[in-house]
Design a protein that fits this description.
The protein has helices at residues 15-26, 41-46, 48-58, 60-69, 80-105, 156-159, 176-187, 207-213, and strands at residues 5-11, 31-35, 108-111, 114-118, 121-124, 127-136, 168-172, 191-195. The chain has 216 residues and is an alpha/beta fold. Strand 1, helix 1 (15-26) and strand 2 form a beta-alpha-beta unit.
């Protein structure tokens, strides 16, 4: 199989992998980066950015209620599909921005799932590439436990891509991400139940915030 030589080969084109690759290239290194899905990583594609867009969209329910208290006759219904479509358009735009940043920095993007062969070799779809340094920047992904009924559960990735709103939802966990999703879907009209092991949500956070975050 043919080989190619790079000074740095990065596995994973999220925020960390892209930043490290661009910085190395700016110092004259020959750099390539591999990604099996879209460029941008968790924060841009499956975390902070899409979540905030849904938070902003669902927050209008609260604004409408406030407006009624000030004499405004406001009616409205959230079109969830349109909100998801708008979110997807923004993610497409950001993906294009990241692709342009890599291209302008001189970093070669290789699409596919990279596997380590040895300390200086990776393989992507049968193509072997050698590099003086290999940076693993793959991040992580949620893992569902092997328990009965798990086939009916989704992770935060799935929650960000729901094409239609369910009538009810159970969210397992009381951390800040769980509560953010709880707020999003409750504001959108979903009957949300939060299930936790402890006595209060937001373990490790300020006690006053924990006390008011959810009714007992």
């Amino acid at each position: 199989m043919p080989s190619e030589d790079f000074d740095l080969f990065t596995i994973g084109a999220g925020s960390g992998g892209v930043a490290a690759s661009r910085r190395a290239a700016s110092h004259g290194a020959k750099v390539a980066i591999a990604e099996s899905v879209r460029v941008g990583g968790t924060c841009v594609l499956r975390g902070c950015v899409p979540k905030k867009l849904l938070v902003y969209g669902s927050h209008f329910a609260e604004e409408i209620e406030d407006a009624r208290g000030f004499g405004w006759e406001v009616t409205g219904r959230l079109d969830w599909a349109k909100l998801i479509a708008a979110k997807d358009r923004e993610l497409d735009r950001l993906n294009s921005v990241y692709l342009r940043m890599l291209r302008d920095s001189g970093v070669a993007l290789i699409e596919g799932f990279a596997k380590l062969v040895d300390a200086h070799t990776v393989e992507i779809d049968g193509r072997r590439i050698r590099a003086k340094h290999i940076l693993i920047a793959t991040g992580g992904k949620p893992v569902l436990p092997t328990i009965p009924g798990i086939e009916h559960a989704i992770t935060s990735d799935g929650a960000l891509d729901l094409k239609a709103l369910p009538k009810s939802m159970v969210i397992v966990g009381g951390g800040y991400i769980a509560l953010e999703f709880s707020s999003i879907f409750a504001a959108a009209g979903v009957a949300v139940t939060v299930v936790i092991r402890g006595d209060r949500v937001l373990r490790g956070f300020d006690d006053d915030i924990r006390a008011i975050s959810l009714p007992s």
